[in-house]
Every structure is written in structure tokens, then in C-alpha cells.
Amino acid sequence: MNSRNIDELISILEREIGIYEELLKISRDKTDVIVKGKTAELDNITKVEQTFVLDIGKLEALREKAVNHLVNDIGMNNTVSDITISELAKYLDNENAQRLENCKNNLLNIINEIKNVNDLNSKLIQNSIDYINFSINLLSSIPEANNNYSKSGNTNEGIQKTYFDVKL
């Protein structure tokens, strides 16, 4: 078995872990930005996240190639999309199997943390949207003061206007 292929796969996984760690940090920063209502900073963070997502996509393509090389090297019948790290580890020596399992566990932990932070961010954004909708509804339901008088000197009870006629 070619240990270069295993080292290449582990190197790719470690680079992915590094990017996911950066994404986790950015997601946590995003929470603070959302709470403070800094929309310009939120836009910048989103742009940075997009570059990381593109980088992850490139690394995923490299990872698939590395796994394909390993599968061919080992002589497995599986296709790249069917094989898991745990299955692949069964065909490796203990040291490399452990290295792969460590990468898998690190990735899973980081991705789970990112998911939790993103869930919190989604809830915060939804709360902000709900508050904005509440404010719009409140303003749109307040009738405008009627300062029109009829011929008899009484206020005209004609059409009542609101601050907002339409909610988009």
C-alpha cells in the first residue's frame, strides 16, 4: 500500500479541519454582530464565509481523488461516494487508521459546533424579523389623526389613513 496516498488524504482532511475551525470562529463572530445589529459587518462576514465554502468545495474534490487513489491502491470494490472513513480505516495499519479516525472525529465535532452556532444565529435573525414585522404592524394599525372638518364644524370621519398602506 502506498503511504503517500494516506498522507495526502490526511493532509487534505487536516486542511479542511482548519477551514472549518475558521468558519466556526466566524460563525461565533457573526452571533455578536447579529446581536449588535451591525448589518454592514454581517455582510462582510457572509462574503468571507463564501470564500471558505468555495475552498472547502475545492478540498472536497481533492479528497475524493485521494480516496479514489486509496481505494484503487487497496483493491476495494467500493466507489468513492460509498466509502466512509471508518470503512477505509479497516484496511489500514493501526497508526494510519487512528489518524483517519481522529480527523473524522475532529471534523464531526467542529461541524456539529458550527451547526449549533448557526442554529442560534438563525433564531436571532428570526427574532429580529419578527420584531420588525411587529413594529410595521403596530405602525400600520395606528390611524392617522383626522384634522378635517365638515361643513357643520365637526371632524370629518372620512377615510382613515395609516402610516403604511401596504406590507411587502
From TrEMBL:
<dbReference type="Pfam" id="PF05130">
    <property type="entry name" value="FlgN"/>
</dbReference>
<dbReference type="InterPro" id="IPR007809">
    <property type="entry name" value="FlgN-like"/>
</dbReference>
<protein>
    <submittedName>
        <fullName>FlgN protein</fullName>
    </submittedName>
</protein>
<dbReference type="GO" id="GO:0044780">
    <property type="term" value="P:bacterial-type flagellum assembly"/>
</dbReference>
<keyword id="KW-1005">Bacterial flagellum biogenesis</keyword>
<dbReference type="InterPro" id="IPR036679">
    <property type="entry name" value="FlgN-like_sf"/>
</dbReference>
